[in-house]
Amino acid sequence: MASGNEGIQQLLTAEAEATAIVEEARAYRKKKLKSAEQGAQSEIAAFRAQAQAKFEQETSFDIGSIKSYQNDLESETKAALETMTAAYQKNCSKIVDLLVHHVTTVKMDVPDNLAQCIKATMPIDAGQ
Fold it and tell me: pTM of the entire structure?
């Protein structure tokens, strides 16, 4: 039986060694995962900082160009309003006179196409 106990003892020792190896592998894997996670976090932070810097640079450029566009638009609008005001001042009395003339002048003749329609619808007896 001594050899049986010895065999069991060897199996227990081998099992303990296997358990230790598995635990060591798990610890190594956890260490590698933690290291990879930290590396990924640092890469993410670097990328985020780079993207933020690029965004701020583009935004500041856009804000400056928006101001210049706004100033240009205001000056163009002011010039257009001045042109329209001058045209109004110049042509105001002419337009009023033209409107008054067309409202107060009445033509008393019947257009040819309307006269033909009226003649076509009238009975022949009534025209004589």
Answer: 0.39
